[in-house]
Amino acid sequence: MAFYSRVSGSVGMITLQNPPVNALSAAVRQGIVDTMHRALSEPEVKSVVICGQNGKFCGGADIREFGAKMTGPPLVPMVHLIEAASKPVVAAIEGIALGGGLELALSCHYRIAHSKARLGFPEVALGLLPGAGGTQRLPRLIGVPASLDLITTGRQVTAAEARQLGIVDEVTDLNAVDAAVKFAQSVADKSLDARRISTYPCPRPPDLDTIFERAMQQVRRSARGAIAPGTCVQAVHAAVTLPYAKGMERERELFSVLFNSGQARALQYYFFAQRAVSRWSTASGARWDTSKPRPVHKAAVIGLGTMGRGITVSLAQAGFSVVAVETQEKQLLEAKQAVSGMLERGAKRRGVPLAHDKIKYSCSVQAVADVDLVIEAVFEDMALKKTIFQQLSAICKPGALLCTNTSGLDIDELASQTQSPELVVGMHFFAPAHVMQLLEVVYGPRSCPEAVATAMQMGKKMGKVSVAVGNCRGFVGNRMLKLYLEQAFFLLEEGATPEQVDQVLEEFGFPMGVFKVSDLSGLDIGWKVRKADGLVLPAFTGTSARIRGGSRYSPLGDLLCEQGRFGQKTGKGWYQYDKPGGRVAKPDPWLFGFLEDYRAQHGLVARRIDHQEVLERCLYPLINEGFQILQDGIAAGPEDIDVIYVLGYGWPRHRGGPMFYASQVGLDKVVERLEHYQQIHPDVPGLQPCRLLRKLAAISNPAIHKWREVIQKPRSQL
Ligand SMILES: CCC/C=C/C(=O)SCCNC(=O)CCNC(=O)[C@H](O)C(C)(C)COP(=O)([O-])OP(=O)([O-])OC[C@H]1O[C@@H](n2cnc3c(N)ncnc32)[C@H](O)[C@@H]1OP(=O)([O-])[O-]
């Protein structure tokens, strides 16, 4: 709602009230309309101030209402009512003015912002455009190039930048509402003719066509299939080329196309999913609201390879004192230099003070004796990790949390090396650890709720989105990835090329296809894991070369590694590069010959594989594994899986994540296609729909937010 008061006799004050961000719900819109009419009708009121309760102006349209039937007054007539008012209206912007909130502010005749306020049009991230006149008013106020930048990227600006751009009239360090009231009194008698933005002509730069062409090219490059950014460009174009009223019509048409698109639904689902994962729960019933994190002031990182360095930087930037340990003097020095460089670049980019003095380097593991939490980040070698955990258990003070950065090893096995297995959790960071936003927090069967809560909170403090997952091989992300990789290999055996598979996946919206990513990460990493699992043995020849444990196995990746083709680092992998370390992937004629020889050797006849099959074969087994993970209780809900895939594996955000995508495709269709492929390839693993997927498909494809009701039934019933 919005409530009305009178200040100093002559100022009508409208206060938006809808916690937590004063979003423009039906009740708030109704409140604004009613109180505006009241302010205009009271003769003593000479001017009006609009502000938000609890130091937040307005977070925009109420996203929770998007899926429901529209009630209450629409936004567009509401902003027109404000702009057309005969008394000056001043927006007092504290905290945030985002989306519809900024559109509300732009309909006011003046804007006063607190210096800490942030303003922007984040609609594009929800698959929308600023549809309450934002695309028509902003270019009239600040010009086309700056508007294109803000509207197509969703970038938020500080009050200072907003002042510089001309979005706000004044910035204050004091109370912005008081300042707005004073300001409103000072302009009470002024003419409003020059204050209604919709009446301004839209500036028309001479190189208009070039500006729009460049903007379109830019969004096509960065949007990877998302439709909202390009539609935002079209809406701004209308501001320049059409009169205001016609421009508003065009904005409405374009908004409606976006609003009704599957992409907007996916992005809005994702918005809530990313927030839902902080309300974690574990299979044993521990929960975010009943588990208290332990205080952590000082942390340690053991092992300063690529991952350890990134983790050290993240911890220091988050304000923790860090003890960084690497046992060899030479490696320690190298790591120190690398970490310093990363910190310097980070401080420059983010305009924050350097965090060098937060880190103490040491060659001795004894230096971690007094820390509250240790993150072990040595390479993926269970024996080595076990030794370190035994040492840590003896050295660390009682109550210290022992965490391991691993991408898939058994947390419980490590916990069993310590005196306090309840204090052991996994923290699976993604490379580069100081950049990637995702953290899988892995709880073992013995991890106590406080340990999980502490790791979750640490991730948040480091600016990450932490997702709690159970302990199993590969956890959530890598466990599902395995299925995707395997299918990609099988497709090569059957006649596809790496370029074809990658192209299909890139058209779907992944920044890179599976083979390009493998080349980037290094083919030897998976090879090492497969060797450790006993899958790579020279004895495998003839028919057995393509069978492991009764299922089909493709040794293609192993054969490439045997040739020393480890990907970008060696200049050759699934593609060729101009030099070792080169970045530009080019098809390699050698590989075509290699695949032909391989097929001939194994009696395989290459067939034409179409786009649809590549997509379904790569994605549906991965999705099926996601359902198996839910069935096993490794992830608490589909949102957890989707957030992991969007933030950690490049799944296109405008497709919501693999589980949301499956819900859009239709679970019955996913089951049907998996069964179809299973019939053709009965020996291929991962094609058999799991029980949970079948069960959900059988109860007529319920909406994704209803899945938990089925999952939470005793798993034995599935
Ligand atoms: C014609 C129409 C044209 C207009 C279109 C629009 O305006 S589109 C909209 C354009 N606006 C946007 O896109 C703004 C989107 N919002 C944001 O960017 C951030 O939430 C923030 C910067 C406002 C606050 O960040 P922060 O890190 O301090 O906190 P946090 O992120 O954790 O959120 C706290 C809680 O608030 C909730 N909630 C937030 N916003 C909305 C909303 N609009 N609605 C409903 N709820 C909203 C959020 O779900 C969470 O709830 P929970 O989980 O506690 O139950």
From TrEMBL:
Its EC number is 1.1.1.35, 4.2.1.17, 5.3.3.8. It comes from the Eukaryota. This is Peroxisomal bifunctional enzyme. Monomer. GO terms for cellular component: peroxisome. It catalyses: (3S)-hydroxyhexadecanoyl-CoA = (2E)-hexadecenoyl-CoA + H2O; (3S)-hydroxydecanoyl-CoA + NAD(+) = 3-oxodecanoyl-CoA + NADH + H(+); (3S)-hydroxydecanoyl-CoA = (2E)-decenoyl-CoA + H2O; (3S)-hydroxyhexadecanoyl-CoA + NAD(+) = 3-oxohexadecanoyl-CoA + NADH + H(+). Its main location: other. The lineage of its organism: Eukaryota, Metazoa, Chordata, Craniata, Vertebrata. Pathway: Lipid metabolism; fatty acid beta-oxidation. Transmembrane segments: none annotated.
